[in-house]
Amino acid sequence: MSSSSMRQLDLEACPTTKDFVLNHEDEHHQQPLENESDPFDIAHTKNAPHKTLRRWRQAALVLNASRRFRYTLDLKKEEEKEQRRRMIRAHAQVIRAALLFKLAGERQIVIGPIVADTIPSGDYAIGLEQLASMTRDHKLSSLQQYGGAKGLCKMLKTNLESGINGDEDDLIKRRNAFGANTYPQKKGRSFLRFLWEAWQDLTLIILIVAAVASLALGIKTEGPEEGWYDGASIAFAVILVIVVTAVSDYRQSLQFQNLNEEKQNIQLEVMRGGRIVKISIFDIVVGDVVPLRIGDQVPADGILITGHSLAIDESSMTGESKIVHKDHKAPFLMSGCKVADGVGTMLVTGVGINTEWGLLMASISEDTGEETPLQVRLNGVATFIGIVGLSVAVSVLAVLLGRYFTGNTRNSDGVVQFVKGKTKFSDAIDGVIKIVTIAVTIVVVAVPEGLPLAVTLTLAYSMRKMMADKALVRRLSACETMGSATTICSDKTGTLTLNQMTVVEAYVGRNKMNPPNDSSQLHFEVNSLLCEGVAQNSTGNVFVPKDGGDVEVSGSPTEKAILSWAVKLGMEFNVCRSQSKVLQIFPFNSEKKRGGVAVQRTDSKVHIHWKGAAEILLASCTGYIDSNFCLQPIDEAKDFFKAAIDDMAASSLRCVAIAYRSYELDKVPADEDSLDKWVLPEDDLILLAIVGIKDPCRPGVEDAVRICTEAGVKVRMVTGDNIHTAKAIALECGILGSHEDASELNIIEGRVFREYSEKERESIAKKITVMGRSSPSDKLLLVQALRKGGEVVAVTGDGTNDAPALREADIGLSMGIQGTEVAKESSDIIILDDNFASVVKVVRWGRSVYANIQKFIQFQLTVNVAALVINVVAAVSSGDVPLNAVQLLWVNLIMDTLGALALATEPPTDHLMHRSPVGRREPLITNIMWRNLLIQALYQVGVLLVLNFWGRSILHLNGEEREHATDVKNTMIFNAFVLCQIFNEFNARKPDEINVFSGITKNRLFMGIVGFTFVLQIILIEFAGKFMSTVRLNWKLWLASMAIAFVSWPLAAVGKLVPVPETPLSVYLVKPFRRWRTRQNT
């Protein structure tokens, strides 16, 4: 689990609602997701307790634990991490010194040397150690000694207002003097480590031992020239399996590593050279001035320059989930913490391993482990098949040993292998080793060790491809859960719309400005008040280049739209800000839908400016100023303003009101503590303006919504905007089909929804299509109500207050551009371009993951069933097996590693979006898969057993020497069997479509693997006869093998015409067991 995920667990305060889904036998009956009696039935691993996760691990039949559990959560490491965190807090200085010493020895110190100055040196008047010790130990006396934030800025050659210069030379000097904001990453597993883990498989170790024994006995009895073939061929086959497995696992590991690096690369804003620039968190340097807003991560250690109601959640470092308020008495900020409330700016004083966060990150390895529901279920399937395979192998071993020692086993030339009292001891041991080798190889083939790992393979592939589709997966399980999503609760702004906002309508007084940015229509004093309110009541910034270039406006899209409008009205941002002093700030609050600021002007007048949702702010106004700067009572004009708001909202405009009020200076709290706690008055406001902001719908959103609807996924819009704006956008996007759909049942306001009882919310939630004027708590209530009603809910969110809803949802989708760090860390997937069309692509990939795993299961079980039945029947009837150990190992390689690569990496198709969502309780092996599997397995078993018993006469080998005829027959069986698997790989691509070749040219990896397998099979038969215990086949037998394999294609096509019952086969199989268990319990 990543450190960010770990921090998220600390932050979680909201209890999760227990999941409910539809039962197969009764679609209207609800049942809890977890089945207490089945350890592999964990339908939701997102917040699963460690006890549940430990339970399924103990229940799984595993041949190679280090490989099988590689990508699951390391429960032991999780406990160690918490201890390490507490230790770092207590002994940061000692750990840092030890780490520096270790890094110096390994020459791993990153981006320039870290100078351990204790006295001022170089270009700066303060050294690294002085800064580090002041910040680490929160030495307020040292900070005061340096002259506070201003004095420290001078020492670090930083400007409090405009930040550092930020040119390349300046950045290099700072990195050399104070280090970079990176930390040495723990090295990932090397390829040799993967090789070591791949051969930890118990069965492979037994085969290696058997190969060594066979080699020794062979050389002793047959001489070094001929005797080494049997043992060496088994050893070579085992080594090949180990190498191919290790290469596949290593490639997956590198993919996860790259994704983790992407997750850690947070983008943030800093002030450099007077302008706000966006940089990577790794590019932060000491001396940077960083603005902080709700939901941001503190990117480095630092001190507060200015702050208003700034509250920091330090739980990620201290482990205590309490909010700490920051001011000039407590100005120290710790890297890795989150801004819980307020706004501020900080001066960076420590980066990289000179911070406690850096030390923590350098001392723990990034753990990608996290099980997914599908992975757990597949472990259950693998365990069941493994037990069957193990039973078969033990039976085969007993039968073969019994036949061998009773003299019923003959060589290919007809000679009895064991005669009591005559056969040499070494020959008897050699015979027993061969029998044990066959039995162990059956276990290798029968236990589908690669089945659970195929999930990891397909997830790794999907995650890499999803990055190209602008989706960064933070939690593996979200990939597959998205395939089950039945509803998407989407934000409007920036997700369904472009987030490119412009003011297109403006009312000042009762006068509608046309055009909206024509300042000549305004009285000078009105314009002055508007500019003051817009400039001071904003977290955005306006930068005017000295060379006279275009004005640069930064901030949130709404802020940018209003600032740009004010600039066109003649606002000089920096001048406006310098003419008044900020006393207190009330940051924009998504619950109250407004934000305010109190300022003291140069003439000592106090103005309180508010900006927010038009109809909500209008309710707090008692008057308005007309365009001639005359104060008018609002009572008579309220209907006019409400009608203006409704008209703008019906045109899908976001309506924002700007208001202010005067305040007596002597009523403003005088001391700093009281000022910080001062609640800005929200009544008796005077309306200055109402603006309508246009945010056009994203191109392609209507198509994306239609695709979702056809795929059985209902799209719901949840927005903080006016209900009329929401309705207009919903109609434009196709979420509401027509005006007739826009009934009271479908459209609701957040406050109305929250007033219902829990039961009422559950019944109403399913009908809701649009929720307007919703707060984050309304979104959470909607998610909880939908999940209780059996829906699998995906929800989008970008604000800090969306975090509870993102965590509560089955899949939390945060926005990469507008999303805060808190929202991103609470989410499962980050939508990098904030586009709803990308959310739909994630649904496609989610369904593709499930579909690909099912293809692989169908393919693998066909091989398992056929190989086991052929060898068991042959062993019981004749005492010999047509498929020997080396051949079975080759089949296992095709089936496990190459088959998984070929089928688990199929790209998603449009066909996937014409189905209903995959039910989370739906059996992994559907009736369609059972039909396909049984048809192919029965065909293969039937043909190959006919060849085994009557092959010599069918192939006209009766006239041949007995030994040669047996070898040709067994080679033919092996060749036909492998070719059947290659042809069946095509069938597995499309389990429910007759045309299995559609889109095949797009998957080059599939074609490459099939081609590679076929070429290798030719080489093995024609040139590696002694290794494989085969003989060369003539062209007629090759054609016959191809014909046998080819029949599987038309057979599959005809088989798909056979209807299957809708009730899953597993229901019929489980019913007797459930009845028995009920009787036992009663």
UniProtKB/TrEMBL annotation:
Location in the cell: Membrane
Domain of life: Eukaryota
Catalytically driven reaction(s): Ca(2+)(in) + ATP + H2O = Ca(2+)(out) + ADP + phosphate + H(+)
EC class (word): translocase
Bilayer-crossing regions: 194-219, 231-250, 381-405, 435-461, 1005-1025, 1037-1058
Signal peptide: none
Record's bilayer topology term: Multi-pass membrane protein
InterPro entries found in the cross-reference section: ATPase_P-typ_cation-transptr_C (IPR006068), ATPase_P-typ_cation-transptr_N (IPR004014), ATPase_P-typ_cyto_dom_N (IPR023299), ATPase_P-typ_P_site (IPR018303), ATPase_P-typ_TM_dom_sf (IPR023298), ATPase_P-typ_transduc_dom_A_sf (IPR008250), ATPase_P-type_domA (IPR059000), Ca_ATPase_N_dom (IPR024750)
Keyword Transmembrane among record annotations: yes
Task of the protein: Catalyzes the hydrolysis of ATP coupled with the transport of calcium.
Protein name: Calcium-transporting ATPase
Organism: Hevea brasiliensis
